[in-house]
């Protein structure tokens, strides 16, 4: 039987049989700046399986992008320093493999799309050229085959008239079409994991929903692992299987999406849910979480959320809450996780 492209990809890193597709394990990252040491990631762990959509949710500055950059091997170092943890892809720690190995994985094993498609695309080359270049350099395709594949990819992301569009420059595309082109580019090397970092933030609400649907369809079709990074719980409600909530460089709650919406296991998640506009509660006042996320130069003692938490007690300031498992498949770093999930 002929070897398929995905088989070639999966041996780019010799995997450990049976290992999860991607696993971030107790990751610590600091930024050493003139103002001091910002502790940006403080033990982040999450895992992603094939065919799964994980939403990583949290306010701006909580470390969502830094985690993604560390997974991709594109963290700004210095000032960034990885001080602990592992990023395992098929069980192999990418933080320990050679730079060459890392480059092989980037794009073909794990690919990423960014919030701002305009600055991620090169304005002086056609969209087609930018897709074809990867195929020629990384897959050794001829110009002709690469062009054919680029047209197929634009078609896959539902860009009308792909054969004409492939010859156009990024500025000739609307915002939504550019984001589709970015998605096409990220899929060129058939990645197993796609990380989408706030892929719809710059777009209007209707286009946002279309792009989310597109990502979800592609994820299901290709049985990819998809990590959707967002600060907006509303955007991922329909598409996420699991949700990891980040606060001050930690995962404070992890759960299947349905249970989390029904009964959040952490006061921070509750605050995010309560600040969502709800169609069924028109006219009711939205509550927002009081205060601001902490400075990562001086993270509050105990539970880092305590200065903003409506449930905080003395223990919250004194003791860092451990990761509780209040229900199967659920994690919560709150002293009162059990009560929140299993209480009255
Ligand atoms: N290159 C950098 N230099 C210094 N600090 C950085 C750098 N990149 C990110 N940070 C800091 O790391 C923290 C987390 O950032 P980020 O992961 O981008 O947050 P978000 O959750 O919004 O994606 C922020 O406080 C940010 O200022
Ligand atoms: S540990 Fe305390 S401060 Fe932290 S989220 Fe739970 S109740 Fe709030
Ligand atoms: Mg970000």
Protein architecture, described:
By secondary structure, the chain is α/β, with parallel strands linked by helices. It has a domain at 121-188. It is 35% helix and 22% strand. It contains 14 helices and twelve strands. It has helices at 5-10, 64-72, 99-108, 117-120, 127-139, 143-156, 162-165, 175-187, 205-222, 233-236, 257-262, 267-274, 314-318, 337-342; strands at residues 22-33, 36-48, 53-57, 80-89, 92-93, 110-113, 193-197, 225-230, 242-247, 250-256, 324-327, 330-332. The strands form two sheets. It has an eight-stranded mixed beta sheet, sandwiched between helices. A four-stranded antiparallel beta sheet has the order 2-1-4-5, covered by helices on one side. Strand 11 (324-327) and strand 12 form a beta hairpin. Helix 5 crosses helix 6, helix 6 crosses helix 8 (175-187) and helix 8 (175-187) runs parallel beside helix 9 (205-222). It is globular. It starts with a helix and ends with a helix. The model is unreliable at 1-12 (pLDDT under 50). Bound molecules: adenosine-5'-diphosphate, iron/sulfur cluster and magnesium ion (MG). Adenosine-5'-diphosphate (ADP) binds next to strand 1, strand 2 and helix 2.
